[in-house]
Amino acid sequence: MGSFPGGTVVRVKPTIIAGTTHDNDVMFDSTEIKNAVKNRGGVSKLVGLTIIDKDQESHDMEIIFMENQVNLGTAGSASSITDANLQLAKILHAFPIDWSDGQIVIAQDSGSAAVFSTSGLAGANDKSYMPLILKAAEGSTSVFFTAISAAEMAYAATDDLEFVFHIEYID
In DSSP terms, which residues pair with 146 in a beta bridge? Predict the structure, then answer.
């Protein structure tokens, strides 16, 4: 992926649990958002987020952004992070995703999919959480994220979720 003067759109498919994930479980390991900032150790503005759910689970979740790749526990289990690792992660932001505030259901060959978008322009969630500043660790242009389930969910495949980050470079 190259450098873009004004920003970029980054698509990430974390490896999620195929099968049941319980309320308050870690949904996937801390996952890299490559080129989240333009310059090493720099900052950018996350101006939009789209989540594509191929299984149409449409379950609420909490998204956590951090400077460093640190897992908040084992995927598929309740979060369990030490104080030292929590400090090492350098958490930047955390906010809830409420699918009832922006979901669109679309047809696809295997049934249907759900798409959720937030941009800070409308909706109950958007006004409080977008845009937000992302910061990479020194020497890196990546930021990391994970999610905690806010309800029991059962995805059919490990690649059923795709996150699309709409990023504006500001440094």
Answer: 64
Q: Cβ–Cβ contacts within 10 Å for residue 109, how many?
A: 5
Residue 144 structure tokens: 């990391």
118 and 125 in contact (C-beta within 8 Å)?
yes
Gap between the Cα atoms of 29 and 13, Å rounded? 11
The DSSP annotation for the chain comes to ----SSEEEEEE---PPBEEE-TTBEEEEEEEETTSSSSTT-EEEEEEEEEEETT-----EEEEEESS---SS-TTSB----HHHHHHHTEEEEEEE-GGGTEEEEEETTEEEEEEEE-SSSSTTHHHH-SEEEEPPTT---EEEEEEESS-EEESSTT-EEEEEEEEE--
Residue given tokens 């980050």 in the structure block: 165
Question: Within 13 Å of residue 144, how many CA atoms lie on the same side as its CB?
Answer: 18
Rounded CA separation 61/25 (Å): 10
Per-residue pLDDT reduced to its tens digit, 64-95:
999 999 999 999 999 999 999 999 999 999 98
For the full predicted model, state whether its pTM sits above 0.85: yes
What is the spatial distance between Cα 8 and Cα 57, in angstroms, rounded to a whole number?
Answer: 28
Tell me the sheet residues that pair with 67: none
